[in-house]
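Renewal narrative, Specific Aim 1. Our central claim is that a sequence can be written position by position from structural information alone. The example that follows is taken directly from our test logs and has not been curated for this report. It begins with the structure tokens describing the chain, in the order in which they were read.
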């Protein structure tokens, strides 16, 4: 193949033998008003430093940087070449096959600054010079984002211990309907927030959306803390719900987009870990209630503190490089990558982003695009994962755990909740260490299978007469095993996997749609669980949950792809070959 490129006024011409490891080239420096000086050389690709070997006695051998050439890239016409320092010095050059595409020897495209996606559409990753990610710099920004996850868990758990006391204070002890509204309004708000979060993240960026999210979180907390009527309380819970709904969508999205590939699984599972920590914090915050009945106001009020810290922290956190790249803000994307991964990774990550955008100069997707034949298959996987996660009965198990523990002689509600919460935190911690070693798919299958077995044990412990002497112990064992199994995969993996499998142009909205299914299923379980228990019995309901878990195993085995160790752009190209 004949090739010609121009870089900084230097014309490079040559030919490539696909069966060799060298590229024969001829350099000529063309300058106005001066004679052209040529020298013939070859680049040896067997050396990672790209030794430039002179074939002329007048040319001294010397080293030069690789132009981003890879032997396997010469099999197609119109191969694009770029220096590994492409994004630092802004040139881009083109090699044209002499026999096709209208290009011939001598066809040269002048190097030009990168100003649009078209300028970087065909960059080949320089494999020889990939740097190692500086992973430590990512942790503080992941920690700031996880304040949203803590608030997610805290607002879910704070009402459990405080409902009795706030009902007395607001005069709704006898009105269980209004008490139900205080609890469920949060879920209704979260459903709205999860859909809103995707659009906001696409329009304003990830960090700005976090800052906007702090507004309903802060106002909602303060309204709940100062409420003098149940109506004010419900409005506060609605706003807090909108806030945690937005958080549920953008926390995993932001973490997945800023995390290095090699630790993205571990960092992604931290989201679920901090949700569990938030629930435990709500439990701890309720301990003074017995001695101070109006302490419930403080419990709601202190949640405004992490909301404010989230807004302040995001003011100093880098924006997602992928979002910046999609917006055409290339210099800002470089700065973000440098902050997150170190300057040695800027060229590699930017090159990867440009390859991921090949042939895709499309605008951000609309909501209806998610249901198109192009995207629905992968979007349906995300929706199904959250459907199975909630319909498998996690909230029902947690809700009924107090009664289960009492049957085993554990009378303290706090002790029962603490044991369940500790099991969740422990399992999620283990999952974070396994995520990048075992893979997402295997953890999901193992998790749902363990949940199915645990649900079967719970069902049998309530009905099988032969197990009657051990029913209490077996029920506790089944509950703890179920929560552990859930936290190993079904809990943390969906929120991590979804931003990985969705194409960049639909990522934010598709995550939001899937989270909408999460909150809708959560709401349905909370609304109808007790009715089903009263009609069919707890044993039959648990047996039904076991069946759903087994269905999830079959679905995951057939439809979910493994994403371990692959960049977001590699996953996107694999799932969307037309991109």
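The sequence written for that structure reads:
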């Amino acid at each position: 193949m004949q090739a010609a490129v121009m870089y900084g006024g230097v014309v490079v011409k040559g030919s490539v033998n696909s069966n060799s490891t060298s590229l024969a080239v001829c350099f000529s420096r063309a300058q106005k008003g001066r004679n052209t000086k040529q020298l013939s050389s070859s680049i040896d690709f067997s050396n990672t430093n790209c030794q430039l070997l002179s074939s002329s006695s007048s040319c001294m051998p010397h080293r030069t940087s690789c132009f981003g050439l890879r032997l396997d890239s010469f099999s197609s016409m119109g191969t694009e070449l770029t220096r590994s320092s492409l994004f630092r010095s802004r040139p881009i050059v083109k090699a044209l096959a002499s026999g096709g595409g209208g290009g011939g020897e001598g066809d040269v495209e002048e190097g030009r600054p990168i100003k649009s996606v078209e300028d970087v559409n065909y960059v080949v990753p320089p494999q020889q010079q990939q740097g190692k990610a500086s992973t430590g710099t990512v942790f503080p920004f992941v920690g700031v984002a996880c304040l949203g996850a803590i608030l997610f868990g805290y607002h879910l758990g704070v009402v459990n211990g405080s409902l009795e006391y706030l009902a007395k204070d607001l005069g709704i002890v006898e009105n269980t309907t209004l008490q139900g509204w205080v609890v469920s309004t949060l879920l209704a708000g979260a459903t709205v927030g999860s859909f809103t979060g995707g659009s906001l993240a696409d329009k304003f960026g990830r960090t700005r959306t976090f800052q906007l999210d702090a507004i309903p979180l802060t106002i909602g907390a303060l309204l709940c803390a100062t409420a003098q009527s149940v109506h004010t309380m419900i409005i506060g819970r609605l706003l807090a719900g909108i806030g945690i709904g937005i958080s549920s969508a953008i926390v995993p999205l932001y973490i997945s987009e800023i995390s290095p590939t090699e630790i993205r699984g571990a960092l992604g599972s931290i989201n679920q870990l901090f949700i569990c920590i938030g629930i435990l914090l709500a439990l701890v915050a309720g301990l003074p209630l017995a001695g101070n009945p109006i302490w419930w106001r403080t419990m709601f009020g202190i949640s405004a503190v992490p909301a404010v810290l989230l807004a302040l922290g995001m003011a100093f956190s880098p924006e997602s490089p992928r979002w910046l790249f999609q917006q055409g803000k290339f210099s800002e994307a470089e700065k973000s990558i440098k902050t997150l991964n170190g300057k040695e990774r800027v060229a590699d990550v930017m090159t990867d982003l440009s390859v991921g955008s090949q042939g895709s100069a499309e605008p951000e997707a609309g909501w209806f695009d998610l249901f198109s034949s192009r995207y629905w298959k992968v979007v349906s996987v995300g929706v199904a994962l959250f459907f199975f996660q909630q319909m498998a009965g996690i909230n029902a198990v947690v809700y009924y755990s107090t009664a289960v523990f009492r049957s085993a002689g554990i009378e303290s509600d706090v002790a029962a909740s603490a044991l369940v919460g500790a099991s969740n935190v422990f399992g999620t911690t283990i999952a974070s260490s396994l995520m990048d070693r075992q893979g997402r798919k295997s953890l999901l299958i193992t998790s749902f299978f363990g949940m199915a077995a645990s649900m079967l044990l719970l069902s049998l412990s309530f009905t099988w007469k032969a197990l009657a002497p051990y029913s209490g112990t077996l029920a506790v064992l089944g509950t703890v095993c179920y929560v552990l199994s859930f936290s190993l995969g079904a809990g943390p993996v969906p929120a991590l996997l979804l931003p990985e499998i969705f194409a960049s142009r639909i990522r934010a909205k598709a995550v939001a749609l899937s989270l909408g299914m999460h909150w809708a299923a959560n709401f349905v379980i909370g609304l109808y669980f007790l009715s089903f228990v009263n009609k069919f019995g707890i044993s039959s309901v648990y047996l039904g949950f076991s069946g759903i878990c087994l269905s999830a195993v079959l679905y995951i085995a057939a439809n979910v792809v493994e994403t371990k160790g692959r960049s977001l752009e590699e996953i996107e190209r694999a799932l969307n070959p037309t991109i």
